[in-house]
Amino acid sequence: MNNKKVYMYNKTNKNAGAKIKFSKLENTRDLGGYITTENKTLKYKKLIRSGELYTASNSDIKILQKEYNLKLIIDFRTPFEEYDRPDPIINNCINILMPVLMLPFSDDINVFASLEQKKDSLKEIIKNTKLLKEDLQMIFLDLYSKMVIEPISNRSYTIFFDKLANYPIAEDESILWHCTSGKDRTGIGTALLLSLLGVDEETVIYDYMKTNMFDKNNVDSIVHEVLNITNDVSIAKKVETLFSVKEEYIITALNVMKKMCGSIDNYLYEILNITDDMRKEIKNKFLIN
After folding, report:
1. Residue 91, Cα to own-chain centre: how many angstroms?
2. Which residue has the higher pLDDT, 268 or 80?
3. pLDDT (0 to 100) of residue 43
4. Lowest-pLDDT range, 131-145, 161-175, 200-214, 238-252?
5. Which residues make beta-bridge pairs with 47?
6. Least C-beta-crowded within 10 Å: which of 53, 114, 247, 252?
7. SS in 3 state form for the chain?
8. CATH number for the domain including 93?
9. Containing structural domain, residue 21
């Protein structure tokens, strides 16, 4: 099947890469259902991408335990983020902190990611945060390049793939990875995984852009609140940019990989040290004919 046909199938299959129905988690998705260029399908209830789990309700946790039999959580956040908003304890599930970034503005992003729970301090956050004075689009483009280049990011994504290949999970068990909003660090990790599994690049980008659809209600609520407080459309638009994704972000990351190594496949081999055995094991675990 050629790449165009694969992409059109993945785009029109509403069950592929679908949002899981939780009461509190907005951007948590099951990657099952996507097909690859080799006409294989990602298994359902095996691979879950997400934003932070701090807000998960008891019913959300029960779904992860009972319906998804979650056994491993990989947390891409910084230690500060994890300390401030820890994941809930899920029985029989291991949680591994694996920071992708340790950049000066990471804490500011975390502050905004938790605005829904900090509305009382929203005025102070808007007044003091340095990010609102910057060109956010350029910051994100730089961020995505750094997540591809920086050694700490490379190490974390290498360990991510090692866990996918070697962590023992049964056929009915699953793995979840997340950052704060489930869009940037999680977005890069997911793009790399889908690429390794043989998903075409257009679908990789399409999956990345779904954040804007699934997180729309939360973002609209925050932007509306900011606009009420500031009566400043430019500030509201910057806050919207902070919570949203753009195609050029993920395309920038993929292009940096290609520039470094010639292809995304080569990047996985040469920079992340993904061996043929690891690739084979991951495909065996998560793909079905």
Report:
1. 23
2. 268
3. 98
4. 131-145
5. 175
6. 247
7. CCHHHHHHHHHHCCCCCEECCCCCCCCCEECCCCECCCCCEECCCCEEEECCCCCCCHHHHHHHHHCCCEEEEEECCCHHHHHHCCCCCCCCCEEEECCCCCCCCHHHHHHHHCHHHCHHHHHHHHHHCCHHHCCHHHHHHHHHHHHHHCHHHHHHHHHHHHHHHHCCCCCCCEEEEECCCCCCHHHHHHHHHHHHHCCCHHHHHHHHHHHHHHCHHHHHHHHHHHHHHHCCHHHHHHHHHHHCCCHHHHHHHHHHHHHHHCCHHHHHHHCCCCCHHHHHHHHHHHEEC
8. 3.90.190.10
9. 3-288
CA distance from start to end of the chain: 14
Distance CA(71)–CA(65), nearest Å, equals 8
d(CA 89, CA 43): 26
| Residue from 164, 167, 207 nearest 188 by CA | 207
Burial letters for 33-65: b for 16+ Cβ neighbours within 10 Å, e otherwise?
bbbbbeebbbbbbbbbbbbbbbbbeeebbebbe
Query: Tokens 């704060």 label which residue?
Result: 180
Residue 14 banded pLDDT, cuts 50, 70, 90: confident
**C-alpha span between 77 and 152 (Å, rounded):** 12
Tokens describing residue 141: 């483009």
One-letter identity of residue 25: L
User: CB neighbours (10 Å) of residue 280?
Assistant: 11
Cβ-based neighbours of 211, under 8 Å, separated by 6 or more? 27, 181, 182, 183, 187, 244, 245
Angle at alpha carbon of residue 239, lines to 233 and 243, rounded to 5°: 140
Nearest Cα neighbor of 52 from 188, 178, 186, 192 is 178
> What does the alpha-carbon distance between residue 239 and residue 115 come to, in Å, rounded to a whole number?
11
